[in-house]
Amino acid sequence: MHAEALRALREEGGRAGFFIGLFCDDDCGLELEPDLLAAAARLGIGLDLALYPGHPHEDRAAGVD
Fold first, then answer.
1. Which pTM value belongs to this model?
2. Residue 6 burial (CB count, 10 A)
């Protein structure tokens, strides 16, 4: 059912995607499981990944170390 709706959306010029924003001030990362990536690809769902390095944690912004 959802696959049909997503296909119709793409046929009409639309797009669907996952947006992931990753804020970190040290080394960090994430893992996207192969099954998730394969399912997204089958459905024509893109992946938008934005990295925001150097952003302090909330406690540091408040002056607490």
1. 0.63
2. 17
